[in-house]
Amino acid sequence: MENTYYLAKWMNGELSEKELLTYVSAQEIADYKRIISQTNRYKKPGINKEKMLEEVLKTAEKPALLKKRSFAVFYRVAALLVLSISVYFFNKTTEENFDTNIGEKLALVLPDNSEVQLNAESNLSYHKSDWKNHRNLTLEGEAYFKVEKGAKFSVQTPHGTVAVLGTQFNVLSRKNSFEVTCFEGLVAVTYQKKRYLVAANNSLKLMKNVPTLSPFSSVLTPYWTQDKSRFKSTPFYKVIAAFERQYQLKIQYPEYLKKELYTGEFTHNNSEQALNSIALPFNLTITHKKKLVVLSK
Amino acid sequence: MNSRELIQFCDEKIFSSFFTNQIDALHSFIFYKCGNDALARDISQEAFVKFWENCSKIIPNKAKSYLYTIANNLFLNNYSKQKVRLNFEKRPQETSNNESPEFLLEVEEFDQKLQRALNNLTEAQRVAFLLNRIDGKTYKEIAVFLDISVKAVEKRIHKALKSLRKEIDEL
């Protein structure tokens, strides 16, 4: 039927009372009218904005950035002393360091205007003073890079080195996964002293410790930069690890599921929806125990 | 986007105006979800505390969804199992006040039934219905707000009306 949600349409003035009569009786309409007019009298409790804002600013610890700055002043003084002594021995460089926690993402711009997006539970660092000569970063975790054209740009990871000239690519380097995805241009990956070239729309993935190249259907940026995680035949424990990086929740699940393969995606913006996306395919029931979520048959 | 913009939420003025713009909608949203005013205030306040503490890590066009994610997680982690107990203040009725006591009693009774029926709606239906009725948001605005389609909003509101009538009938 055309107006399946006739009540909503009618309340919104899109359907006349006469038309509504073809769906429900006059008595029902009277009931609905009464419900609506009574609800219209309700108002929600007001809040004292100024007081609450004051409270928020008072309760919160000083933002991390401000803290970092005051530390920086302290270090600058200390560094000056150390530098004056050690300047003969080596050229100390200032290191910029970025960390993300569970459920956090961070976007930053490098001194040459290259852009980086950092996924949850990742660490990225580079030497600022040395940047002009060497575009060199260290990464643990996952990040998406949009590199400005220029000198060689390289990313060091515990698994290997990824080097490019100017392109867009994603690097994932975590405990037991290493994956480099190229979205534009050409990327060179050095893994165990061997060089692999990854062209646009291809990804290099470690399968049982063997680097394997495979094409992927074109997306513009990695899924996680669009606030979702997507998997294709991925072991369940890796999916859970990815979930726990996005939400402040720990998940318990039956041991036999560990190596089961999961294909699907979950959002980073709604933990309940995300849990359902993971649990439903395996027909699991979700139970909340404070910060612990138990999945069971 | 440059690095200046990235830390804009650490500016107390910018944070304060973001707070002032968002607090009402956030409070409504949580209030309709859990039906408890004190709790909704606590969660909203706590969410802003976390937001402020992490200001340097916030991507400007994700600020709002970041805020709601924090609030939603706080709600899910701590309170989602509590019973919903809505309690609304009422605007004075417009009709004259020389009605019979029986009539007033009947109105009072109906009011209690309605509030109980509202508590028994599903969370999704209650949020959509009350955002429309009490906050005066249009279906389109609710759809954008909840990140669902207008059709889905209509479905929730339609079902909300249906089950309200049924509940009141049975009480």
What's this model, at a glance?
The complex is a heterodimer of chains A (297) and B (171). Chain A is an alpha+beta fold.
Topology, element by element:
The complex is a heterodimer of chains A (297) and B (171).
Chain A: H1 6-11, H2 17-20, H3 26-41, E1 42-43, H4 49-59, H5 64-86, E2 95-99, E3 106-109, E4 115-118, E5 123-127, E6 135-146, E7 153-156, E8 160-164, E9 168-174, E10 177-184, E11 186-191, E12 194-199, E13 202-207, E14 210-215, E15 228-235, H6 236-246, E16 250-252, E17 261-267, H7 271-279, E18 285-289, E19 292-296
Chain B: H1 3-6, H2 12-34, H3 37-53, H4 63-78, E1 89-90, H5 101-119, H6 123-133, H7 139-146, H8 150-170
Helix pairs in contact in B: 2-3, 2-4, 2-6, 3-4, 5-8, 6-8, 7-8
Could you explain how this protein is built, in words?
- The complex is a heterodimer of chains A (297) and B (171).
- In chain A, 27% of the residues lie in helices and 36% in strands.
- Chain A has seven helices and 19 strands.
- Chain A has helices at 6-11, 17-20, 26-41, 49-59, 64-86, 236-246, 271-279, and strands at 42-43, 95-99, 106-109, 115-118, 123-127, 135-146, 153-156, 160-164, 168-174, 177-184, 186-191, 194-199, 202-207, 210-215, 228-235, 250-252, 261-267, 285-289, 292-296.
- In chain A, the strands form three sheets. In chain A, strands 2, 3, 4, 5, 6, 7, 8, 9, 10, 11, 12, 13 and 14 form a 13-stranded mixed beta sheet that branches.
- In chain A, β9 and β10 form a beta hairpin.
- Chain A is extended and about 85 Å long.
- The model of chain A is unreliable at 64-68 (pLDDT under 50).
- Chain B has 171 residues and is mostly helical.
- Chain B has eight helices and one strand, in the order ααααβαααα.
- Chain B has helices spanning 3-6, 12-34, 37-53, 63-78, 101-119, 123-133, 139-146, 150-170; one strand at 89-90.
- Chains A and B meet through α1, α3, β1, α4 and α5 of A and α2, α3, α4, β1 and α5 of B.
- β1 (42-43) of chain A pairs antiparallel with β1 of chain B, so a sheet runs across the interface.
